[in-house]
């Protein structure tokens, strides 16, 4: 049990919100899947004969009362009359010890005791459970906001998983949590925590997942270095300062999400060491250029999301993407990027979604973009691109409205591109129209200022092809991949 490291992932997938494509909850405790259903049979009680340790039993009664679950005090032996959310282990003397307590309706499949949100609190009796490995509270104290109690730091000798998710916790993260040196999972997602991230958390060297996202944490990110950390999520806070270069030594990272903060400076070169990284989301910060070429060595990266950082008139080196062989999702919208679209992007065979919109890319779309067979969504709109669109009929049809080209200074299409809605897309035909065709397209270029006026007459019967929505299954397969990658560890 100690060595077996299971993960369960809860994936919240918002199709049109790439900034927060998923959330990962990891647990090494087996919660909730290994929780025992209902009371045990008389047979196993007689055979086993184990009894719950009386001090721990009283502590559990206190904790249950504090969350409005007074019914539990009618159960004569809490480890024998088990409910979803309590887990016990017998020792060699046949005494049961409480190893896991969970509260809150996490999903439809789990039936942990819920909390009376108006008056629940975290009872200090938790410190009387010396064998506790997992403590899990979800949406418990929301209407009775309270700080995270410092006494949790006393569970340092055993606690491996501490999840206090969406509980409405206020105040700062107690430095005492740094005493929980055996912790593997620390999840304080979506509370109202303020103050800064305690430096003491750096003492928890066995940490595998650290999720502090969705709070009001300010100050800068401490110079952490966690050797076995897989998931680091500090998104949706008020964090400032630069990204510490020490994070480049967290070589087990698979997900790093610092999106929606106020981070400044450039992406550290040390990130080139994150060989296991699958997802990097640094969107909506204040990061500056130059464009991080160190990322080209991230050979496992599948999603790179940097949108909403004004990189400041910086160009992307042409071979920048050559190392990212597995990249599926690239989001570089609104970054003030200049110069040509790098050709190396057209060599990413796995690419599925690419947003390059709202920049100052100029020149033509690299001709090798026609080889991006798996792209289902491509945004090149609001740039200064010129020249012919390199896609064939099949790609245009497959992407449908998810191919966005509008508001570029001089893109045009050829007859073999298969555009039937060129007018809506705001692009004109490259060559002169054939007179007398059923559908005529006129393209007037004002050579004095480079602006273009496009007039298109489309015959009434023009068929607009419906785009096939493939995105759902593709994203799902990405998540599945991440799941499998994590479980392989
Ligand atoms: C926990 O950590 C704090 C400060 O980080 C320290 O003062 C305290 O002695 C530690 N021990 C316990 C049991 O909380
Ligand atoms: C955190 O918020 C509380 C109110 O919830 C406030 O009293 C306290 O001063 C804040 N602390 C910091 C460091 O911002
Ligand atoms: C964090 O915010 C509080 C007010 O909420 C402020 O007093 C404090 O100076 C801020 N800390 C930093 C490091 O900016
Ligand atoms: C492209 O997509 C197909 C079908 O989803 C898949 O079988 C193939 O492996 C993908 N190719 C690459 C290079 O990802
Ligand atoms: C693109 O813009 C840069 C200035 O940002 C300019 O030097 C370059 O010549 C332009 N390239 C093309 C093909 O227009
Ligand atoms: C066109 O794109 C540029 C950025 O390249 C943007 O500043 C401008 O607002 C866009 N125009 C329209 C009409 O959207
Ligand atoms: C071309 O643009 C210039 C400047 O905007 C304008 O004065 C002129 O009338 C335009 N010519 C045509 C043919 O639209
Ligand atoms: C396009 O339609 C307009 C009226 O809607 C007409 O005046 C014009 O002659 C047409 N142009 C062509 C090239 O058919």
UniProtKB/TrEMBL annotation:
CC terms in the record's Gene Ontology section: plasma membrane
BP GO annotations: response to other organism
Compartment list: Cell membrane
Superkingdom classification of source: Eukaryota
Keyword Heme: no
Signal peptide: 1-21
EC assignment: 2.7.11.1
InterPro entries: Leu-rich_rpt (IPR001611), Leu-rich_rpt_typical-subtyp (IPR003591), LRR_dom_sf (IPR032675), Ser_Thr_Kinases_DiverseReg (IPR051420)
Entry GO MF terms: ATP binding; protein serine/threonine kinase activity
SMART domains: LRR_TYP (SM00369)
Keyword terms of this UniProt record: ATP-binding, Cell membrane, Kinase, Leucine-rich repeat, Membrane, Nucleotide-binding, Repeat, Serine/threonine-protein kinase, Signal, Transferase
Principal place of residence: membrane
SUPFAM superfamilies per record: L domain-like
Catalytic activity, reaction form: L-threonyl-[protein] + ATP = O-phospho-L-threonyl-[protein] + ADP + H(+); L-seryl-[protein] + ATP = O-phospho-L-seryl-[protein] + ADP + H(+)
Enzyme class: transferase
Name under which the protein is recorded: non-specific serine/threonine protein kinase
Organism: Gossypium laxum
């Amino acid at each position: 049990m100690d060595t077996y490291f299971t993960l369960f992932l809860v994936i919240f997938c918002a199709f049109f919100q790439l900034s927060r494509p998923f959330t990962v909850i990891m647990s090494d405790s087996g919660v909730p899947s290994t929780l025992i259903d209902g009371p045990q049979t008389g047979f196993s009680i007689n055979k086993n004969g184990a009894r719950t340790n009386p001090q721990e039993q009283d502590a559990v009664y206190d904790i249950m009362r504090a969350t409005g679950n007074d019914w539990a005090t009618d159960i004569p032996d809490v480890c024998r009359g088990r409910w979803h959310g309590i887990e016990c282990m017998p020792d060699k003397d046949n005494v049961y010890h409480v190893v896991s307590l969970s509260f809150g309706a996490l999903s439809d499949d789990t039936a942990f005791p819920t909390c009376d949100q108006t008056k629940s609190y975290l009872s200090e009796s938790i410190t009387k459970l010396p064998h506790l490995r997992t403590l899990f509270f979800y949406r418990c104290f929301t209407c009775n906001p309270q700080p995270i109690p410092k006494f949790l730091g006393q569970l340092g000798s055993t606690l491996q998983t501490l999840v206090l998710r969406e509980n409405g916790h206020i105040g700062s993260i107690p430095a005492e949590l740094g005493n929980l040196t055996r912790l593997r999972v620390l999840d304080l997602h979506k509370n109202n925590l303020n103050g800064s991230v305690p430096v003491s958390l750096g003492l928890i060297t066995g940490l595998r997942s650290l999720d502090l996202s969705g709070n009001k944490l300010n100050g800068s990110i401490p110079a952490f270095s966690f050797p076995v950390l897989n998931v680091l999520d500090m998104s949706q806070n008020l964090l400032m300062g630069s990204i510490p270069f020490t994070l480049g030594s967290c070589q087990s990272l698979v997900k790093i999400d610092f999106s929606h903060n106020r981070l400044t400076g450039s992406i550290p070169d040390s990130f080139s060491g994150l060989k296991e990284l699958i997802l990097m989301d640094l969107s909506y910060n204040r990061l500056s250029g130059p464009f991080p070429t160190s990322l080209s060595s991230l050979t496992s990266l599948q999603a790179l999301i940097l949108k909403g950082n004004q990189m400041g008139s910086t160009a992307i080196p042409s071979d920048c993407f050559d190392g990212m062989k597995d990249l599926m999702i690239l989001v570089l919208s609104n970054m003030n990027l200049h110069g040509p679209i790098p050709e190396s992007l057209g060599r990413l065979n796995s690419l599925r979604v690419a947003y390059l919109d709202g920049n100052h890319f100029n020149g033509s779309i690299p001709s090798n973009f026609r080889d991006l067979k798996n792209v289902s969504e491509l945004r090149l709109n609001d740039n200064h691109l010129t020249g012919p669109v390199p896609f064939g009929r099949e790609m245009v049809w497959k992407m449908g409205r998810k191919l966005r080209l509008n508001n570029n200074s001089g893109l045009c299409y050829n007859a073999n591109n298969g555009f039937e809605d060129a007018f809506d897309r705001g692009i004109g035909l490259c060559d002169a129209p054939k007179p007398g065709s059923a559908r005529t397209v006129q393209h007037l270029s004002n050579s004095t200022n480079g602006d273009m006026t496009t007039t298109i007459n489309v015959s009434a019967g023009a068929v607009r092809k419906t785009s096939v929505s493939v995105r759902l299954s593709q994203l799902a397969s990405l998540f599945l991949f991440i799941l499998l990658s994590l479980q392989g560890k």
